[in-house]
Amino acid sequence: MTAAESPAAAAPVSPPGKSREPRVWKFIGTSLWGIALFGAMFAGQVTVVAYFLVTSGEPMDTSAMTALLTNGRIISLSVIMGLPAILAMLWLATRLSRAPFADYLALRWPSWRMLAAGVASMVLLMVAWEIISRMAGRESSPGFMMDVLKTARADGALWLLVFAFCVAAPIVEEFFARGFLYRGWSESFLRPAGAILLSSAVWTMMHLQYNWFFLAQVFSIGLLLGYLRYRSNSTWLTVILHGLNNLAATIQTILLANNS
């Protein structure tokens, strides 16, 4: 018997029932799952608004919808409800990819050095936008945030607003944009640079309640967070920075509201 005919030289056979190797959803798969993820998040958020609209007893007209969509307590609950919805869909997407949830979304703790660099870069970016805002004669906080904060404080739900904007929203948006979308798109023909640009654009479109000036600010923040995600390979880093940025914006809005 020759070496080629020897049983030891034969190609190894996978044991029965052994799971296949994990995979990463590429451009098309990530895009399609991204639509499903956004739909799940949107459904979770709209459910809250629909509930209050139906139970309010008010006529379903434009003015009623406007009041609901600027009510701080309702907006906060809506944002929070988007969290379990998108987590469930993310679990399904990663489960079908046969990859561990935390590994797929890069849920690993960043180094303290990377965290410090991220905080410093975020502060510099925000200072730059504050200077641009003052030079352009624009308000530092969007009117939408001011209306939401005032109604939340009137309802005694300021704490709920802080939790929604500084904890729930960063987790939802970062898991979606810098976690899932970036992961798949960065390993497609887009490569990391294209994935940073596209995920930042998608993230910006999730903030269409703002005007073009604040949308430009959101996009620049997305680019920075995307770059930090690339350098650190940590989505928790971008969640923390996103939360700190939202906290600073919320405190700024509170101070502006107190002085108005």
What is shown here, in short?
The chain is built from 10 helices and no strands.
Structure report:
The structure is a single chain. The N and C termini lie far apart (93 Å). The protein has 260 residues and is mainly alpha-helical.
Any key phrases for this structure?
260 residues, mainly alpha, single chain
Choose one word for the global shape: globular
Summed up, the helix count is 10
Q: Mind telling me the C-alpha Rg? A: 22 Å
The tally of beta strands, per DSSP, is 0
Helix content: over 70%
| Biggest sheet statistics | none
Alpha carbon gap, first and last residue: 93 Å
- Roughly what fraction of the amino acids lie in strands? under 5%
Helices and strands, with pairings:
Blueprint: H1 27-55, H2 62-69, H3 72-97, H4 101-104, H5 112-135, H6 143-154, H7 158-186, H8 191-205, H9 212-232, H10 235-259
Helix pairs in contact: 1-3, 1-7, 3-7, 5-9, 5-10, 6-10, 7-8, 7-10, 8-9, 9-10
